[in-house]
Amino acid sequence: xxxxxxxxxxxxxxxxxxxxxxxIGHSYTTIAADVLSRHKRKLGWDVFFLxxxxxxxxxxVRAAQEKNMTPQEFVDGIIPRFREAxxxxxxxxxxxxxxxEPRHIRAVQNFLQELQDKGELxxxxxxxxxxVPCEVFWTDKQAESGLCPDCRRPVERIKETNYFFKLSRHQxxxxxxxxKHPDFIQPESRRNEVLAFLKENTLTDLCISRPKTRLSWGxxxxxxxxxxxxxxxxxxxNYIAALGYPGEKERFExxxxxxxxxxxxxxxxxHAVIWPIMLHAVGMEPPKRIYAHGWWQVGQEKMSKxxxxxxxxxxxxxxxxxxxxxxxxxxxxxxxxxxxxxRASLIQRFNGDLANDLGNLVxxxxxxxxxxxxxxxxALQKERLKSPLASEILLKLDKLPALVDAGLERLDFxxxxxxxxxxxxxxxxxxxETKPWNLKKEGRQEDLEDFLAVLITAIRCVAGELEPFMxxxxxxxxxxxxxxxxxxxxPLFPRIEEE
RNA sequence: CGCGGGGUGGAGCAGCCUGGUAGCUCGCAAGGCUCAUAACCUUGAGGUCGUCCGUUCAAAUCGGACCCCCGCAACCA
Length: 499
Fold this sequence. Notes:
Layout: E1 8-17, H1 24-42, E2 46-54, H2 58-66, H3 71-88, E3 95-98, H4 102-117, E4 121-131, E5 136-138, E6 156-165, H5 171-180, E7 185-186, H6 188-200, E8 206-207, E9 209-211, E10 220-221, E11 224-229, H7 231-236, H8 238-241, H9 249-255, E12 259-264, H10 268-281, E13 289-293, E14 296-298, E15 301-302, H11 313-320, H12 322-332, E16 339-341, H13 343-373, H14 388-409, H15 413-434, H16 436-441, H17 445-466, H18 471-480
Parallel strand pairs: 1-2, 1-12, 2-3, 7-13, 12-13, 14-16
Antiparallel strand pairs: 4-5, 4-6, 6-8, 9-11, 10-11, 14-15
Helix pairs in contact: 2-3, 5-6, 11-12, 12-13, 13-15, 13-17, 14-15, 14-17, 15-17, 17-18
The protein binds one RNA strand through strand 1, helix 1, helix 6, strand 12 and helix 13.
């Protein structure tokens, strides 16, 4: 539509590298993106939520070899596991891109050709210590002893001809871009980190190709069929490939200006340095915002595929439910910081926040609706209210959407949830203060109606705000409160008794 | 002198940028209530805010020195 001004929102997760199964870290970023997407959609924004998989490169080849499969067979076998995991977690992505898809390959090749045409690439020699059996390059420091850190066999110094991208040419531009856009890299500590890095170092030329003779599992360079594209270079382009680059200008222009890349802090350099420079080099705008979140640790150790201590989200979901998992990840630890995962803290959140506060409030309220009004829901008559606390609750409800929105805008999921829980707390207090059982005995029907009307109103509103975070729970609550009557169900979150 | 993060009641954290009665969640203790999932509500105990020095009328908060803890090959969110 010409002159369209509709608010659009583009959010991405990294495309996950598929040499292993989905773990808590993948689900963390993905759930965060899902919450933001659901929230924006609710407000009427046009949302495009992208996730996907990164399928090329040496690691995938090796993982496939270990299973006696071709790389294609291997990735085709893993991708459904990701899709299933996201389905189970109620992830509402709009698109799932695979780097082995034709649309992505076309985008990458087009992008490379543009760079080549603009004279941004040059042919050069790559030299390094190479372990032939492992097919891996090591830096001098890594292979100090002259042995491969992995297999302990001797490495050899080899040279190969590759294409290089001169990042340093755009370094000054990037520094000033970051300086001019305080929100470009978040949180602030990460922004400072990148800025300091850029000011203190000259970026080295990025080797963007691999000889096909050494690695064939990749996207061929359009101008040199003897080379395939370096996997990171290939991967980053997914963000624009999914928007229809290079063909669909309209879609691209609609979503790209509002782009938000959610990433883990480990891949900050690629997203905050290489990616913006790649785009700038071909004359495209950098992403609007990059947010690097923290890591989950297990006990004192960091979680990693190689240590084998990864937390399996699906097992946790089966045991505790989807919504507590989604809630826990976003509520327990500030998004930008590292956190420690433990069953105990998850159970504590479950029992404390979900069972005692929220679940119990809903349950006791519906019980009273049944007991005092045969399940009928009295209408709210604001002008009749006498209790200051009731007024406070209604006031908070008015402000709640804006509060949640502001929190999510900053990716401060905790602030948003605390805002919601503050209302829940007030409601529980309101019950104690009002002592409806006394009103009943005294036959003060009108007061009792007002009381219940306030609670029901609050619960409806809370459920609405909760929807992006806990879609199932929100749905369950709303299905128990019809327009004029309630249909009480089982407790939403039966307490978990352990030990 | 490598870099970064951190040291606040029993546990986990906020507050520090923009100095001025130390706050939150959990746990613990006592009380209340009965609509409710031994849930809910109230109150309380518990901290010289890592150490020392300095700036100031006043410092968890600013400056300096020091001590201790965590992470820092690659892969990873």
